[in-house]
Amino acid sequence: MPVLTALPPFARAALLLDLDGTLLDLAPTPDSVVVPDGLRGDLRALRGRLGDAVAVVTGRPIAQVDALLADAPFAVAGEHGGAIRHAPGDPVARAPLRDPPPEWLEAGRRIAAAHPGALFEPKSRGFVLHYRLAPQAGAPMRAALDALLDGAEGFALMAAHMAWEVKPLGADKGTAVRGLMAAPPFRGRLPIFIGDDVTDEDGMAVAREMGGAGLRVQDAFGAPQAVRDWLAGAARRDDWPAPGDPFPERED
To answer: Are residues 85 and 62 in contact, defined by beta-carbon separation less than 8 angstroms?
Structure first.
């Protein structure tokens, strides 16, 4: 059974959670993810026990998080830290990042179209090429994107789950953690960041630097379902259960 590393005391902790592959099971396309019954209620219950210090930190736009989770998390950092909303109803704060040239977006669409099953996903300051439904396209798409970005400054090509993302430099999940922890209700608490992908490593590292914990799903839990079960247990016990511990039945 996976074993959790040392965690901050429950009463002093803040939870910062990745979305895809952490709270939600991965799906063939970003639009086909499923929010399991009870997850929103568990996050709301954790807000009540942690003084609202519960956030989602994701590469998705904030609007997509709202569509999936509604008001369950108190704060949301989207676009890998490029956009942060510190509380429900607050304006979205955007980092001063560069926009990709329009011709890059057209090139991204062409690259995806050349590989049946690949998916082009535009973002506000970049784009993602998904190849989960076209696994053989991973290497040639990487080569094409390397050539596209060759010599360009201010942007990076980032690996994700069966995807390549072109994004501006200057924001990541580590900067998102710092930004969230600098404001109430997170300020003064110790962050627990949970993620599953290379894009989450910056968030894990910063959480550890701040005296908290950075947990990788695969090592600490095994799978998103175990993360959800652990959160459900914590929402009802006011402490951190061991992975696999039983918990009372959900109420919703």
So the answer is: yes
CB atoms within 10 A of CB 210: 18
For 181-205, write each residue's pLDDT tens digit: 999 999 999 999 999 988 899 999 9
Residues 92-115 as b or e (16 or more Cβ within 10 Å = b)? beebebeebeeebbebbeebbeeb
Look up 18 and say whether it is catalytic: yes
Active-site annotation holder among 18, 42, 196, 200: 18
Instruction: State the DSSP code for 197.
Output: S
Q: Would the pTM of this model clear 0.85, i.e. be above it?
A: yes
The phi and psi torsions of 83 (rounded to 5 degrees) equal -140, 130
SS3 93: strand
Query: All domains of the chain, ordered by start, with CATH?
Result: 12-95+171-237 (3.40.50.1000), 102-168 (3.90.1070.10)
